[in-house]
């Protein structure tokens, strides 16, 4: 029997077909191994690509080892609630590994020993059924749908909703998805798990920054992260402080979600389209992430103890020159510069391999995590009380992350109508960092940059075992030993955080409920740094110390009324109305000092410094008041309508625009319940969704609409009175009373369907997301005394397609499930408010023109953050070539040759620079496979990005510099190698941003492979026990030449992406896990 499915989407088919073909072929092989020979039942052909997917029918069964002594055969048939055969049902003899699976017609045959046994029948989406056989040899079983699964509830804004009734685009993960990997923060758990949610690691340091984007970049200057809501409490997810810190200015900035242990989480829902997010109004343009923590369950008393220990190692080391090769390069450089050789030939030969600075600095680093939780309760009171501890050292010495956490969640039914409860998360985190993702000419030394510059001819340590001072050796002037930074530089971030919510839910009457919630997010963040006497980071002073203190208090109150009514089992109505209030206050203190008598005091006593700096302090607060409403209407369980509206009043914005309205509407049609579809017998579910809505982005500075005052003691802004300088106050900026939030309008079209008794589920969404009124600094006349004013202007577009696939490939004794998601997004700047372009990605330094100090250019018609610079054409081979071409007359042989793009005969950056690459991927994806065989479980997870570029700024140091350490320098230009493709040892022209630094950043990361064994019951006190081994970040398939293509040294910047600026290398982790339940 052959069925042909014609597919009009040829490109998508060509992409998916190989994946599905392999999956179905692998399915056949595994089923053959697990349950005996198979024969073809049906063949489906997708004509656009010739894909053939066989559905397999068993014709026999391979005898089980435990059933070699066969006393009898039990056979029968398994059907569903409509008496239709159920294929693939798992049938197992309870307490053994003897089992089989039902055939395509629902029949089964099982060999077992004589005597009564219990057969367990299980199938996804149906209630498991146990049958005691007695002396029977024929058993027919009818499985019923799992009502709880059919009524699966997901968390949405200010409430819950049955999954089947969703009209918006919502992705979710569960605690099971979170527990399979070694992660420190809940946002990392989303990586590669939900289509349309791009989670990008900015820094691989312990506790390093994470960037999360939902459906692309929707802003240039306002925040780009989604709104996080924990147990109904919107939390503050911005950076710790506006103060610039050496550890926190770039990609190594601490992650604000570090305070939350992922093991405390029950589920995470990501609201993606405007229908789902508009209920959060002015904060929802970047999506909303709803985090629900674990809670106690009635009639249970559980004790859970989890242990995870492991060791990390650098996943990759770059190929470097050895000491002899580097010394030859150094001598070559001296000759080209007209100087005597630095080393004699005897010294060069004696160097040998010399110092491997990567081996000297990188270390094996332990990681350990423990959790103890007590949960359960009765019908009226339920509890969960737990504690957790995480300790992770970094592969760079001196870096680490520690977290101590406590969770207390209580729910009490005071009466039949009143329920109260609370959620409490308290944590203390200590994060030690070392300088990475920066560059020395900014006054901030950098460990990775130091590794790239350290001569392999110099021993790492002196005779006392201390780090050598590189400045005391040839060619070591101005260099810092990377071991000095890792062992003597001190950067510590300490955070105390309390996130708490209390609620009361009162049933006023049947169908009418009042919910009142009060929450607080209180965070106390301290930063300490000390750079020792004589270090580069101390800028020549006798030590530098600094302390920053930040306190953030975020208070929220939400009050909602919900009315639910069903009429004649046809009309279902749910109406929500509410009022919310949020107030946030931030205080900052910053103090530093130079010139310490000894390094022993570090940052503990700033008063000992001989040159204390003027301290700074800051305080700001803002308020948000909102009214919201939502209507859910369902007719005949087939036609669904959702409409919502929210009015926000925000103190951040101008007097003329403090309030905004954010509406949305969504429709859904359960096509699968229509007779003309149901009678086809193809779809278990078929639903069409469409939505439209408007959301906003208010993530800007608190007082940007007002005119702020500045003060100064400087000679330009002070005057003499009574013989002393008197500070003055002056306006810092021009106010804008019309300032408002950015506005995003989004259209979404979605399709959900399930096939083969729900063994294959697919969700497809297409969206069009346009943002207007971008918040941009617009240039103004200098006669005003200012250079720019913040206005709502400009526009941006994101459009794309998301696909999510869940399949149960095998449901017998051998179980195999697959989750695959892929998202395509196209980003385009439509307008910059009249400006033709803007530069971004400041790198500073060097004798170059101002625009050379930027790495990217924003321009209408292009994507955000596209790299901009010169085209690298190799090196000048000879003086004759330089004269003949004439575009760079000042160059000398061996210098970098840049392309004269406009053909005017002269190379210059203003007219010859072009767009070089796009840091935004064409698509990102994730693939998860779970296999289960008896007590064994295998989990394999991988994710990746395709079509994006990375700007490898580190090449300026290790490749293009005349003393670069990269092994690629062996192919440098020299008088004896005029065809070398890299600059000569004596090259002197500026190392501008150019195409040689832009690399293909596509990658496939094999993130997790974990094998778990369920230990058989060995004590009445132990309910369950599991032990497992795993490896995280096993391998990365990529063309990128740096340590890792997934990073951004500029953190979560909207406009500066994909920058490798001496970033922290990634680590591979080997671990052992133990889970005990009592």
TrEMBL record:
PROSITE patterns: TONB_DEPENDENT_REC_3
Keywords: Cell outer membrane, Membrane, Receptor, TonB box, Transmembrane, Transmembrane beta strand, Transport
Membrane topology per record: Multi-pass membrane protein
Chief location category: membrane
Leader sequence segment: none
Gene3D superfamilies, alphabetized: Carboxypeptidase-like, regulatory domain, TonB-dependent receptor, beta-barrel domain, TonB-dependent receptor, plug domain
All copies of domain TonB-dependent receptor-like beta-barrel, residue ranges: 471-1034
Domain of life: Bacteria
Compartments where found: Cell outer membrane
Record domain TonB-dependent receptor plug: where: 163-288
A GO term from the CC aspect: cell outer membrane
UniProt family annotation: Belongs to the TonB-dependent receptor family.
Listed name of the protein: TonB-dependent receptor
